[in-house]
Amino acid sequence: MPRVIHLIRHGHHPLIARKLCGRMPGISLDELGCRQMELCAELLTSPASAIQTSPQRRARQSAGILALRFGLAVEIVPAVDEIDVGDWAGRSFEELKLDRAWMRWNMARSSSCPPNGESMLALQRRVVLHLEQFRVDGGGALIIVTHAEPIRAALLHYLGRSLDDFMSIAVDPACISTLSVDRDGIHVSRINQQVPT
After folding, report:
1. Which of 102, 140, 158, 174 is the least buried, fewest Cβ under 10 Å from its Cβ?
2. Alpha-carbon gap, residue 127 to 146, rounded angstroms
3. CATH code for the domain in which residue 101 is found
4. β-strands 48-53, 141-146 pairing
5. What domain range includes position 19?
6. How many domains does the chain have?
């Protein structure tokens, strides 16, 4: 049996689509987000061997809901943390629309960087380095609860596509994207499986 790695985005929170949160502290799931993660747990039918999460509160809460279903402890893993958006953290998307650096970053993710933040390439390197350690057959399903950008970065890497294609990969709240691991490597087997609404 090949190993399966589920990359799961945290559930909904009140600032989604309003502010660029990045690593802002204290952002919690709302009622919708908690319900989404309960539904997400129901979609995960294969037994999980481990649950890992980003250090961000919204991801830890999401992982905790999944952990209840599987009876597992949650391991906090800095390698799957949200991208550091530097000076943009906490700014509204309306405000960012007027920022030339923001426009440049969204046109060329492979070669630009948030001011005082982390490049998408650096994010991709740390996430892929973490995933590559699981490049072995067997071991059950690994669940990693993280954020949209780390998931996009990983999927683009394993699809062999440029980081500039980041907007072509949808990553909705509480969605599941799945990697399969076999003797030939790590492969993308599912992208953005959404919870029922």
Report:
1. 140
2. 10
3. 3.40.50.1240
4. parallel
5. 3-193
6. 1
